[in-house]
Design a protein that fits this description.
two-stranded antiparallel sheet, alpha+beta, 5 strands
Length: 62
């Protein structure tokens, strides 16, 4: 199955049926099954857009 990071839309609280607790506000990875597809379709959750990786600062060599 496909995994995607989802978060509840503002003002909503969505319980993860496998973990028995609400989905974190900043999002967390879930297996995109029928339950989560319905939550997406109903507008209860949204996809977390991945942020581009920041380049690591180069260290000056002595």
């Amino acid at each position: 199955m496909y995994t995607e990071t989802l978060k509840p839309v503002r003002g909503r609280r969505v319980r993860d049926p496998l973990r028995g607790r609400p989905l974190r506000d900043d999002g967390e990875p879930v297996t995109l099954d029928g339950y989560w597809r319905r939550r997406l379709r109903d507008g209860d959750v949204e996809r977390v857009k991945s942020q581009p990786a920041r380049p690591q600062a180069k260290r000056d060599e002595e």
